[in-house]
Amino acid sequence: MTTAADHATSRRAVGVLIASNLLGGVGVASGVAVGGLLAERLGGTSVAGLGQAASVLGAAIAAVPLARLAARAGRRRSLALGYALATAGALTILTAAVVNQLIVLLAGLGLFGVAQAVNLQSRYAAGENATAATRGRTMAIVIWATTIGSVAGPNLTDPGNAAGIAAGLPSLAGPYLFSLVTFALAGTVIALFYPRLPTAQPTSLTSEPEPSREPEPSREPVGTLASLRWAGRHAVARYAVVLTACAHSVMVMVMVMTPVHLAHHGMSLTVVGVVISLHILGMFGLSPVFGWCADRFGGVRTGAGGMAGLVVALVLGLVAAQETAGGVLTAVALTVLGVGWSACVIGASALLAATEGHVRLPLQGATDAGMNGAGALAAALAGPILAWGGFTAVNVAGAVLLVPAVVVLVAALRAGRVKAPAVA
């Protein structure tokens, strides 16, 4: 951005992203608090995790097509289409609750999950409207905007349930009425107010090439698999991709089973909503701080700090699982889990946003697809793991999922880089 008009357009774009993420956050959070419970009601405890798995899988499937559409037609069309699909998903979930069909519910939750893919890609759109010195903070502010909506969303569970029952809907379906409305509003905001912008090429965060970097043979656009192969050859990019997937899978596995765990211990929907709100506050509330850390100390170190937070959360979860009335400690563990996730995702996102060249958008889409695919697998496994070994086993499994990120962290630190490599 070089002119006053460019700066004004950039500020407008970021403002629109903030508004849409706020609305989208309400929609996602109001539904996620009861998705597992609704799936359990229709299919039993062993399939409770499939609800979140379907939602996360939907986000994973949508990530690459949305990134391709953004490269071809711009972020405005990509983000608006994503919210339209999520709106259709909320409507399908309401239909599933009425007809009492688990398959229809899972299909609706898959479309519902596209909203999460849109929220994630909004951070990259924000990074395209920032300088290298402020990229981490700009991305983090857009992520932070989700906090208001996401914290409010779970606390709409009881009012939404009451509104749904008053409208003749089955129990647990009502919160998706809020999702339906807020997704539609978020898509409208993007479609009407997001400026038409060319795909930006951000300035690299590093002044010299990575030692292990190989010359790119051409400037032709690359595909999803090619972008991942490129990342596999570069320690820092590989770290960003793997960390994103591992951190998200750990967070999803523990988070999706927490409402079921609390319900099994007699906690009310109100308590569940408060715990999920605290978790989401942890996920997004400190985003600007971690954005500053990424700008100041680099994405590798910021992500490493997030991994430490995830370990602390898992230890707290193990302790809480041993208590008969561990609601407070469970809430603390889930809050710390959100904080660790935030640092991991923002650190990795700053590295990915700084990647130059035709590999950038495909790699971002591939990373988000891997992130949500890993989360979907973790959510699908979480239900059987909870049924087999309780909340203790869920936290142990989360620790195992974090191991690959530790391995690639060592390689990234050994490479002597704390910033993303540039593509010539």
UniProtKB/TrEMBL annotation:
One of its GO terms (cellular component) is plasma membrane. The keyword Coiled coil does not apply. Residues 13-416 form the Major facilitator superfamily (MFS) profile domain. Residues 202-222 are annotated as: Disordered. Its main location: membrane. It is found in: Cell membrane. Gene3D superfamilies: MFS general substrate transporter like domains. It is a multi-pass membrane protein. Residues 210-219 have a biased composition (Basic and acidic residues). The keyword Signal does not apply. Keywords: Membrane, Transmembrane, Transmembrane helix. One of its GO terms (molecular function) is transmembrane transporter activity. The chain crosses the membrane at residues 12-39, 45-67, 79-99, 105-126, 138-156, 176-194, 236-257, 269-292, 304-322, 328-354, 366-387, 393-413. InterPro entries: MFS, MFS_dom, MFS_trans_sf. Coiled coil: none annotated. PANTHER family: MAJOR FACILITATOR SUPERFAMILY PROTEIN, MFS PERMEASE. This is MFS transporter. The lineage of its organism: Bacteria, Bacillati, Actinomycetota, Actinomycetes, Micrococcales.
